[in-house]
Amino acid sequence: MAGSIRQRGERSWQLTAYVGYDNKARKRRYATKTVHGSKREADRALAKFVTEVAEGGRVATAPVSVDQVLTQWLAAKEAQLSSSTSDRYRVAIKLIPPALKSLSVAKLRAHHIEDLYADLIASGQSGSSIRKVHWALRQSLAWAHKRGLAGIIATQGVDLPPLGERKLDPPTSANVRKVLEHQLTANADWGTLFALIAWTGCRRGEACGLRWGDVDLQGPSILIRRAVVAVPGGIDVKGTKTGELRRIAVGPRTLKLLKAHRKRCEARAATCEAVIENSAYLFSPDPAGRRPYNPYTITRTWVAVCKAAGVPPIRLHDLRHHSATTLLKQGVSVGEVMDRHGWRTVEMVNRYRHLLEAKDAKAAEALENA
Hints:
This protein is α+β, with helices and mostly antiparallel strands and 370 residues long. Helices cover 48% and strands 13% of the residues. It has a three-stranded antiparallel β-sheet, covered by helices on one side. Strands 4-5-8 form a three-stranded antiparallel β-sheet, with no helix packed on it. It has a two-stranded antiparallel ribbon with strand order 6-7. Strand 1 (3-9) and strand 2 (12-22) form a beta hairpin. Helix 7 packs antiparallel against helix 8, helix 7 (173-186) packs across helix 11 (295-309) and helix 8 (188-200) runs antiparallel to helix 10. The longest helix is centred in the middle third of the chain and has 20 residues, at 127-146.
């Protein structure tokens, strides 16, 4: 917050501190104060005055609660966020108790937030969930500060709880194989979709977003360039999670399934006097492939397929964990695993290292015989 000094007399000084923007009056507001003493004393007084004004809150047309700030911030930000990100913020905001939401944002302090996090930990919330709450509070309070609704950003300096160990438990290869073999026999279209996810490690939304123009049957490979996400009232097609394209090689069995799937799609389209264009989606409820599946439909179908195949419940996303773990066990390089799965950092791969067998037996023996 800016401040300035103007000398009014030999030992008289006027201090000015910027308070904020008054939305109602549509102008900047400043607070002033007169002090007496030397220039050095006036400088110290200005620093203290600026801090007092900041902690007292900036100008608002009326008292604004934490809940109002969160609501207004999310409404303003929503156009820039994916529907899934917006949903995560809403879930996080629901963890904030009404007593804190009703507090005036000008009176919100770091100790209120630290107490909130302590209560969330005591109630069994994970460090990851608390971080989502923190992100919502931090961004909304910064938004409020910029608009003159809060003098300080209360999340500054707040210590976050540790994330804790994230345990991964990929499904066994035997169970994955059993589900795929069952579904390829029961329904080849759905079987091909689930086999593609399992054998490429692509995300659910990325599989939904595949078009025939992304498939190279000669390569053979598929190009991941978009993803389908569920939004209120329907679906939306956007870029990949990282915003980058990636090409994934497919094996001979996947290639065989894709060729057979293409023939089935062309046969269905012909019955409707349509043709399968390069823009058509690989997996679609429409015979001509003009629209993709809703990702939720994919998940619901997968749950039913696991049950019909007689295997323990497997999350659809766990097929990515199975893919990464299997590749690492087979000695595939970390770089290749990252490229296939669309990961930017090695930390994503490190989550799987504890699942791998120790391969330093010779090193252990060498140390013992040294």
